[in-house]
Every structure is written in C-alpha cells, then in structure tokens.
Amino acid sequence: MRTDLLDRTVAGIATRARWFLLAEDVPDRRGFLQAVAPSVKLLGVLALVTVTVVQRDLSTVAALAGVAVALAVLSRVPARTFFGRVTGPPTFALVVVAPQAVLMGGPTLDWVPLSVAGVDYVATFTVRVAACVGFLSVLLLTTRFADLLAALRRLRAPTVAVSLLAITYRYLLLFFAELERMVRARRGRTLADPNLRRTWRDSGNFVGTFLLRSLERGERVQRAARARGGTGTTPARSRDSLGAADAAFGLVVLATVAGVGFA
Amino acid sequence: MHIPDGYVDLSIAVFCAVLSVAVLSVAARRVGGEVSDARAPLLGVVAAGVFAAQMLNWPIPGGTSAHFVGGAFAAILLGPHLGALCLATVVTIQALVFGDGGLVVLGANVFNMAIVEVYVGYAVYRLLAPYGEFRAAFAAGWLGITAGALTAAVQLGLSSAFEYQLLTTVAIMGVGHLVLGLVEGAITAVVYRYLARARPDLRPDAVSEVAADA
C-alpha cells in the first residue's frame, strides 16, 4: 500500500477525531447558545435554515449570514473554528455556479463580460449556502451530540432511530482509533511501494479485515445487549423548564423570520 | 454526493424527507416488526465500522485517490432493509456531527445515499449473482452509486434554486458517476471477495445453501 495514501488516511482520521473532541469542548463554554435548551435550539436553527433556503435576494441572505456570524460570536465559538467550517461548502458552491455569471442572459457589467443577473445569482447562491452552513455550524458547535439526541427524543423522534444514532456515535471514536492503529501497523510493514494491482488487493483485504472486526464487535455487543434484556433508553439530561436564554433565542428567531418576511 | 442546504428547493427537500421516512419505516418493519432493542447494537456498531472504512484512501490511476461509500456493500452484507437503516444512520451522523450535507436537505441525502444506492445496489447484485458473485458485487457498487447520483441530479435539476437545467445536471452527474462509480464497484468487489473467502457464512445465499444441504 502506498505510504502517501496511508499518511492521507491517518490525516483524515485525525481531522475527524479532532472535530469530535472540538464538538465536546466548545459546548462547555459560557455563551449565548450554550445556555439554550437543545430542543429549542434545534427547532430554532431548523426554522432559520428553512427561511434561508427559500430566499432569492442577495441583501436578505447576506443579513441571514450576518445573523449566523452574530450567533457564533455571542456563543464564543472560536473564529478560526467557525470560519474553518463555514468556508468550504460556499467555496465549492461558488465553483459550481460560477459559469452562470456568463450563461445567464441580460445586460452585462461595464468592465467585464459578465451578466448582471448572473453575477447576482452566483453571489446570492454562494452567500445562501454560507448562511445555511453557518446556522448548522453554530448548532453543532454549541451542542453536545448527547444533548442533540436528548432533544430529538424530547421532540418525539422514533426511539429506535435515536438509539441507533447513539450507538453509532459511541463506537465511532473507537473505530477511528482501531483503523488508525491498523493503518500505522500496515505502514510499518510496508517497505516499498507495491504496484497498483497489489495495492488494491491489499486494500481489499485490509478493509475486509476491518469490517469483519466491526461486524464481530457488533455481534458481541448485540449478544451482550440481549443478555441484559435490550439496550434500554440511555438516560439523558433533561430540562423541564425553559429559561431566559431560550426566550431570547426564540425572540431572535422570530425577529429574523419576521424581518425576512417584511423584506 | 452530500447536498448542502441552499441547493434544493424546500418543497423537494420536504418531499424527499417524507419519502425517506416512509421507506425507512417499511424497512424497519420488514426486518422483524421493529428493529429490536437487542438488534440495534449490531446495526449501530456496523454503521460506525462502515463510517470508519470510508476514511481509507484508495489509489486510482493519475496520482489521486478515492473513498469507499459502501451503500451496495452494506446491502449485500446486511440485506437491503438493514443496509438502508445502517446507511441512513451513517448519513445522519455525518450531518449532525460533522456538518456534511445539511439539515433541511437531510431527507434528500438519506434518500440518495441510504435508499436509492442501497436498494438499487442490492437489486443489481441479486440479478447478476447467478452469473458470478464477484462481478455482481462490482456492478452493484458501480450502478448503485450511479443511481444515487442520478436521483441527486434530478433533485437539483428540478430545483429553481439551482439554475442548471434537469438535462444538464443529469448528464453531468450521471456521466461523472458512471465513471467514478467504477472505482466504487471495484472497491465493493475486492472487499466482497475477501469477506466471502474469510467468512462464507456472511454471503447472502449462505443460509439457503445450508438449508438445502440439510
């Protein structure tokens, strides 16, 4: 197996693992959205994203992107973390829709042969994607996954779906660590870069071994769960009463939705 | 193939979400009433394994690399209904933990990657398995991911938010994934070959063979 590919795999796993740790760290900070009940936050962010996806006006989507940034600042989300997450999808969106600046008809700009309508569309599309990613990012960066699951349960999501998500999340870091160990071990055994055919055969055996281990672990966990009489519902921290932060966030969402409606 | 929020019209996103919930509910019933409390751990752990396996880089000619998606593979290994539930869990975790895809468009992403890819992949495998399991696994991976990309292309092409016409999105994504899908097909086939040799009892027809022998 080629060593550069192994390095890339290890780097990919490390990035995912870092994101995991970050997702467990930022929600502990004292900030605006951290104080909001997860169920209220989930519904509020869903409302904000829903309002954003139907917008077709540049100034409106720019204002919504501003709301996402303001929520991140108020929630003390590190700027590097927030913008690191938010810049990727809009950049890709820009590349995808950029040809429309030429393809769309109508009057052109004075200094470049680009359509006015096309440039407006490309800018609106890109900023809209950025605003949506911004809202999703503030939700994910200020909420522990366990709290998100508790919110889903509180919102009457099917129990089995919530259990599946909880179990998968619980084992992800373990499997990342196992995959990383296997990749490092393979790298240690690899003295020279084999040809493409050999690399593919080795990779097939490698992923097959890894998936077999996953399956066997799953079978063990299933037997253990059956012996205990099922997994049961994982206890979740619950908040019975809503506080000032929930009301404030509710007002922000209502004001944003109303503002967009009047715009 | 994860579509972020902002690309697809709200009506299409809602329609796909309703469709996904309906299909996954049927899948949950078809695997024995509901997914039992004791069966959920197997699915959850395998979903985590599939997620982690997607991290491995596979070399492709030209110096670049590709990733395994695993929709058709999960369908062959677990059966289509458990496979769909497994992949739906993976896609949801990707959205709710790592922000891949979006919130409003989650139902559409689940539909493309956990329903279309899994069921089409499984159908292709069952259809071609009598002519060779290795070839059938290759075709399942290849055509499964292409079918998922095509439904994503239809969702994008029908959305007024995305200015490209339906024919354009279908042509670009269809042809693109018809080529890229060859890599997914090849990965599915080599992993399947290893598993079929290491644990022949996991092959989809293993139970019927044992029953026939008895």
UniProtKB/TrEMBL annotation, chain A:
Membrane disposition: Multi-pass membrane protein
Superkingdom as given in the UniProt entry: Archaea
GO cellular component assignments: ATP-binding cassette (ABC) transporter complex
Major localization listed first in the record, in broad terms: membrane
Residue ranges crossing the lipid bilayer per the database entry: 32-54, 60-79, 91-109, 121-143, 155-177
Pfam families: CbiQ
CDD domains in the cross-refs: EcfT
Subcellular location: Cell membrane
Keywords: Cell membrane, Membrane, Transmembrane, Transmembrane helix
InterPro entries in UniProt: ABC/ECF_trnsptr_transmembrane (IPR003339), ECF_CbiQ (IPR012809), ECF_transporter_component (IPR051611)
Any one Gene Ontology BP term: cobalt ion transport
This protein's name: Cobalt ECF transporter T component CbiQ
Annotated organism of origin: Haloarcula pellucida
Lineage: Archaea, Methanobacteriati, Methanobacteriota, Stenosarchaea group, Halobacteria
TrEMBL record, chain B:
InterPro entries per the UniProt record, alphabetical: CbiM/NikMN (IPR002751)
Keywords: Cell membrane, Membrane, Transmembrane, Transmembrane helix, Transport
UniProt membrane topology term: Multi-pass membrane protein
The protein, known as: Metal transporter
Pfam family name, one: CbiM
Keyword Membrane: yes
Localization per Swiss-Prot or TrEMBL: Cell membrane
One of the GO biological process terms: transition metal ion transport
